[in-house]
Request: fold
Amino acid sequence: MLTINLDLDDESEKYLAEILSQEKTNSKELIKRLLRNHWLNLQPPQTVLERMGGYPPKHLLQGSGDLSDRDVRKQVIAERIENQEDEKIVKSALNSLEDVGGNPQKAGWLAWDAVKDGWEED
Reply:
């Protein structure tokens, strides 16, 4: 621990007394607070993400670190949208298959007559 002795002029001593009475604190706590505030002012400013609490737990754009490149971002977003659309199609298809008792022909998925010849050739 560091001990500091200060020789204040009359004006500075008056300021200190007034601050201590208004802040209802002692000189040790006041000095600590002043040092901390000054130190904080010397620190580099926080980024927007740091001020908002950091990265969200689940990123929209998870993946490679080169997402600052516009083409890469567009590709990642397009893939995500395509995957979401595929999920919707699969859910809809499973629902329609369930509605017809599990028969793909009744669900209208398959025109067996159109593909059976090619199927049998394989």
